[in-house]
Amino acid sequence: MRATTAVPIAMLALLALGPPTEAQSSLPVSLFERYLESLRKQTGIPGLSAAIVQDGTLAWEKGFGYQDVGGLVAATPDTPYEISDLSQTMSATLLLHRCVERSHLDVSDQVHRWDPNSVVDGSTVAQLLSSTSASGDFQYDAAGFAALTPVIEQCAGGAFPKLVADDLLDPLGMSQSVPGADLDDPLSPNRALFLSGTLSRYSDVLGRRAVPYRVDDQGRPTRSDVSGDALDASTGMVSTVRDLARFDVALDDGILLDAATRTSAWTRVGSAPMGLGWFVQDERGERIVWHFGLDRDASSSLVIKVPARRLTLILLANSDGLVGPPYDLSNGSLASNLFASVFLSLFVA
After folding, report:
1. Is the pTM higher than 0.90?
2. Which of 17, 82, 219, 290 has the fewest CB atoms below 10 angstroms from its CB?
3. CATH number of 26-347
């Protein structure tokens, strides 16, 4: 096992991130809460957890509905969800921090330099991070992003789930997050990466996961039978809105990435609607940085950042109603999503 990377002293302050207080925010959260609850019911989402980060502070958090409908267990800010493609934002941050900022890797490197067995012929690291082809064409490609897993392992020197735990989850105090939903499976080879005490904590978190649901046309939820994914660069992370708020604060405060690196990550690659691991677009006169996660008939997630205002919305749900049909966020357009539209109208317009 690799030794834990040294953590900047400033990062320790994140461990004190606590519940928001009434004086911490002047945002119109009461109105936003009513809109969120209305949209949750309209889209049939059984359980939804939400948080807003403003100026490095957890300004607001709330749970709506049920993480377990049958057991009448309410959703809370500490409810763990499988966040699927939203895992890419952490993977991109890890790659940029451990590999690019330490001059081991350049994003213009061909993937084959780091993984000779890769099936992505001729692609560069930047192209996989931004879902672009050599000609600059964009097509969102979660499988291509997953091909960055061995690249990160090679340049950072370790197994991917352990790197995520050592460099992100543990230093940031993300104690309710798990680097792979497979870690509760006795047959998972990734369990050998962690000590028994850590596995016990992960098992407790995974045991409290929001139940995934398929919702029919009448809005009736049925429990989905979804097996837990192992973590790769594209998917598999389990987290809470409160833990993701810790990640967000560290990202905005320059603890995880230098300002120049962060700017490059949040700048479009050519004409593509993505930067390096994030969607990027201009909306309402603001630069909007965002990403989503979607597991059909199971879960969905959405993070929207307004960098100039140091403002972030985090939403996690236990059905696909947050970003699934009729929305298609994989084309790089956030405007059609009602949850995003309400947030931007209230907080950015």
Report:
1. yes
2. 219
3. 3.40.710.10
